[in-house]
Structures are given as structure tokens and as C-alpha cells.
Amino acid sequence: MKAFYVAYNKFVLDKRISENHKQLESYDIAFKQSKESYYVYFLPKSKPGEMAGPGGATSLGRYVTYEIRKADFQVTATQFYK
Known about the structure:
Layout: H1 2-13, E1 27-33, E2 37-44, E3 64-69, E4 75-80
Antiparallel strand pairs: 1-2, 2-3, 3-4
């Protein structure tokens, strides 16, 4: 849960994501982990009949992943898909 909190804070403060794309209800959230890191995926939902654009972007949001180091819960990478 702490990894999500760290990723979400980074998400809402990120200037590369427009304000109208920061609504959490517009995303499905997925998690993975490796030995050293947690990965938090923000997967944008789409409107009925809408096809995702480049990188999985929809009218509701952008596809982004945050890598959080387990040792200290610092964001070590942010990936936007193109």
C-alpha cells in the first residue's frame, strides 16, 4: 500500500499529466514486484467505443508506470508510453 501512496503522490504532482487526466477513477491500477522494486501501473480506462491511442492513451488518461525501490520507497523510474 505504501508503494501506491508514493506513486500516486508522484502522479498528481507530475506536470506532464494534464489536470483533467489526474482523476483516479479514470484508471485501473496494477501492481508487480521484483526483488528490489515495486511497480505501480496507471492504466487509463476508455469511454465506450473508444480505441486507445499511441502508448495506450485515451481521452481519460495516459498510461504511466512508477518504479519504487523497496529499500526506501523512493521513485527510481517513471515511464510514459508512446
